[in-house]
Please model this.
Amino acid sequence: MTQKQKEVPLEYLNGKIGVAIATGNNAAWLCSCGYSYPLVGRSGLFNRITDKSKIQCKGCGKHFYVAPDGGDYKRVRKVVELDQQKIRGIDD
Ligand SMILES: [Zn+2]
Model:
């Protein structure tokens, strides 16, 4: 069987919703800044964002988190842009 290519929501801080493509616990998406290459990430912890689970766009510096569905490192539920002001200190 081929690896299913599932469309999942990509939630930006400004409220815009885009599309990311997921297969299992991996996701890929193009950042809204226009950076030429896709960002790729895998899902992290269910309810805690760690530095290891953050993905940063090389084009604009935005940070993203691949949210798992129902448990740590599970299949991708959605991709969200992170608010650096709100999450600062989580890993410190
Ligand atoms: Zn970007």
Q: What stands out?
A: DSSP finds one helix and seven strands in the chain.
